[in-house]
């Protein structure tokens, strides 16, 4: 039942503050992260993460977290590539699979390949009774509740939520973060559902931008650091449900090829909170604008103030700790795609050619 929403996707986007809060309650005991299984990241030397589609972008985001916060080397790979490459797994490697459905054929095959080869097989799943959950040594539920829209929304942010908790635990286990620093970050994480509610209030600004995006033939998404996987997710969401061709690039790659595509017909969505990489992104934005590209900047108030006046449109989000930006910036990415699809009149919840769960290769 859509509880009064026009589409399941809209309902699932709106549910994010409450399901994220539920998941935190399930995993936090005061300022201690309880995984329900003993995982000591000090004994893990390397993490191999494998998934498909949106779940893969959650892995790419988590790679930044594990490496930066915990100093734990991570390889993130697409399941259909990983499984046939038959990669050697060195001793000390844990394998981590991320899947909403827990039934994705390629992810399951990659998991089976890792059994007996990896020290430990972990999974982050939404469906607790799924094959991937059953066949893992440890399955961590994301607590998103049933997701019906083919375009994954709340499952993505709930995957990020659990992966961030894992990365924070890894940081503490590996002596990279003190208990006091952990408590401070968890405090911010607990505040995030409220911040997301504020972001949802900006829905009409996003809807206006989305109606313009819906008329474009091609759209580019750019991001650096933690925003690079978010740019990939934003582009996937847009093409999946609105059928507008969208591609994402790491901002620094722009001048290595994609800039040739820029002209006044190509909107460029730039996802960039005012973080330590912001100045570099501003110079990429200027390169785009100098070629007539229309920049839609998704940032915070400080970023909007520094970006200058030539930006086509700006979506201003509340400011949050840098480590939490991927969860917050997922919201405008989802809403842009949603409103573009509504403007185009496509079947939002059941886009053509796609299935919710891809159980064949
Ligand atoms: O059930 P899974 O998380 O394993 O599914 C993986 C992908 O098929 C899925 O994320 C797909 O990319 C979504 N439709 C994206 O919105």
Structure report:
The protein has helices at 8-14, 16-27, 53-70, 79-85, 105-114, 131-134, 154-173, 179-200, 203-213, 227-242, 278-290, 301-307, 325-344; strands spanning 28-29, 32-33, 46-51, 74-78, 93-99, 120-125, 138-141, 218-223, 245-250, 267-271, 294-300, 313-317. The protein is an alpha/beta fold and 361 residues long. The strands form three sheets. It has a five-stranded parallel sheet, sandwiched between helices. Strand 1 (28-29) and strand 2 form a beta hairpin.
Helices and strands in order, then pairings?
Layout: H1 8-14, H2 16-27, E1 28-29, E2 32-33, E3 46-51, H3 53-70, E4 74-78, H4 79-85, E5 93-99, H5 105-114, E6 120-125, H6 131-134, E7 138-141, H7 154-173, H8 179-200, H9 203-213, E8 218-223, H10 227-242, E9 245-250, E10 267-271, H11 278-290, E11 294-300, H12 301-307, E12 313-317, H13 325-344
Parallel strand pairs: 3-4, 3-5, 5-6, 6-7, 8-9, 8-10, 10-11, 11-12
Antiparallel strand pairs: 1-2
Helix pairs in contact: 2-7, 2-8, 3-7, 3-10, 4-5, 7-13, 9-13, 10-13
The structure holds 5-amino-5-deoxy-1-O-phosphono-D-mannitol (M6R).
């Amino acid at each position: 039942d859509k509880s009064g929403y026009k589409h399941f996707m809209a309902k699932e986007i709106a549910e994010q503050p409450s399901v994220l809060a539920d998941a935190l309650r399930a995993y936090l005991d005061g300022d201690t992260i309880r995984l329900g299984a003993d995982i000591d990241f000090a004994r893990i030397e390397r993490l191999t993460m494998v998934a498909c589609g949106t779940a893969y972008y959650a892995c790419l985001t988590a790679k930044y977290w594990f490496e930066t916060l915990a100093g734990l080397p991570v390889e993130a790979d697409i399941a259909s590539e990983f499984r046939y490459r038959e990669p050697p797994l060195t001793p000390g490697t844990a394998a981590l699979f991320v899947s909403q459905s827990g039934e994705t054929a390629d992810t399951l095959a990659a998991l089976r390949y890792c059994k007996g080869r990896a020290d430990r097989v972990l999974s982050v799943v939404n469906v607790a009774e799924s094959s991937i959950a059953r066949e893992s040594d440890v399955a961590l539920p994301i607590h998103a509740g049933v997701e019906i829209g083919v375009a994954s929304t709340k499952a993505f942010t709930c995957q990020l939520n659990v992966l961030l908790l894992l990365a924070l635990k890894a940081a503490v286990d590996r002596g990279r973060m003190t208990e006091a620093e952990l408590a401070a970050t968890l405090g911010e994480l607990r505040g995030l559902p409220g911040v997301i509610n504020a972001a949802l209030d900006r829905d009409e600004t996003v809807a206006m931008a989305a109606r313009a995006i819906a008329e474009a033939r091609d759209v580019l998404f750019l991001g650096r650091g933690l925003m690079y996987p978010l740019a990939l997710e934003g582009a996937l969401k847009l093409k999946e449900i609105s059928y507008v061709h969208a591609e994402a690039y790491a901002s620094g790659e722009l001048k290595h090829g994609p800039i040739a595509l820029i002209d006044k017909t190509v909107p460029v969505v730039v996802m960039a909170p005012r973080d330590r990489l912001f100045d570099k992104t501003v110079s990429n934005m200027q390169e785009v604008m100098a070629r007539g590209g229309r920049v839609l900047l998704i940032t915070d108030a400080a970023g909007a103030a520094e970006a200058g006046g030539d930006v086509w449109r700006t979506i201003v989000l509340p400011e949050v700790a840098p480590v939490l930006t991927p969860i917050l910036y997922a919201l405008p990415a989802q809403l842009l795609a949603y409103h573009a699809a509504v403007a185009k009149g496509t079947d939002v919840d059941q886009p053509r050619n796609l299935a919710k769960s891809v159980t064949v290769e």
